[in-house]
């Protein structure tokens, strides 16, 4: 059975009205219907926990109401413009939506290590932080796109072009270690699968430039007059 907005909740029958068999025998008030608004993820977790425990959601909530401390955070009702789910329950009268959500949150926190209970305000702050980081990441990617090199036409053959691509002033101001270090800095930027500015052509030319520069350094050091001065 699903809620009108498509989110699952526990289906109850008339027989569930007295989920504690002894309640009526001692004159306890009959259960009444509750419709508790909450976030879809919270509703799904509560239903999953009830199913795991082999009981219905109303019985789970009733048990949790007996044990949940008042200081347990309330996950909060969704904002008007946010996605929401509704938990349909039958419980004794006198409980607020806040108390019911708080009780189920306590049950989830105890039963599911991966479930973290937090107030709606904190969740809102975290969502805002994620949005800010997403915006900054897009801005950084755009900036890198503007300042990064464009793939050269044809095959990379000139040491001068390769040095410029790596940000070196000329073809004589680096050694093999600096070439390798610079390549490791640039590769994560242009990697076609995981790069911030993913580009297969740039990555291919970056590899060509690295090989060209390393070959240039090795050749120069083998044949130049400074070879005797190397440690």
UniProtKB/TrEMBL annotation:
InterPro entries: J_dom_sf. The lineage of its organism: Bacteria, Pseudomonadati, Pseudomonadota, Alphaproteobacteria, Rhodospirillales. This is J domain-containing protein. SUPFAM superfamilies: Chaperone J-domain.
């Amino acid at each position: 059975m699903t809620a009108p907005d498509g989110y699952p909740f526990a289906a109850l029958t008339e027989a569930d009205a007295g989920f504690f068999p002894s309640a009526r025998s001692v004159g306890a008030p009959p259960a009444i219907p509750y419709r508790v608004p909450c976030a879809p993820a919270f509703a799904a977790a509560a239903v999953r926990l009830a199913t795991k425990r082999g009981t219905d959601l109303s019985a789970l909530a009733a048990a949790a109401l007996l044990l949940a401390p008042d200081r347990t955070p309330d996950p909060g009702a969704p904002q008007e413009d946010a996605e929401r789910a509704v938990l349909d329950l039958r419980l004794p009268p006198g409980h607020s939506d806040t108390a019911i959500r708080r009780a189920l949150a306590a049950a989830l926190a105890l039963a599911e290590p991966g479930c973290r209970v937090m107030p709606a305000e904190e969740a809102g702050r975290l969502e805002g932080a994620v949005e800010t980081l997403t915006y900054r990441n897009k801005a950084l990617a755009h900036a890198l796109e503007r300042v990064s090199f464009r793939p050269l036409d044809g095959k990379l053959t000139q040491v001068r072009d390769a040095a410029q691509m790596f940000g070196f002033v000329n073809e004589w101001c680096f050694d093999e270690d600096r070439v390798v270090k610079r390549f490791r800095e640039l590769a994560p930027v242009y990697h076609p699968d995981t790069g911030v500015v993913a580009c297969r052509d740039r990555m291919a030319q970056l590899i060509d430039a690295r090989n060209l520069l390393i070959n240039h350094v090795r050749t120069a050091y083998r044949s130049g007059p400074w070879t005797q001065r190397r440690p």
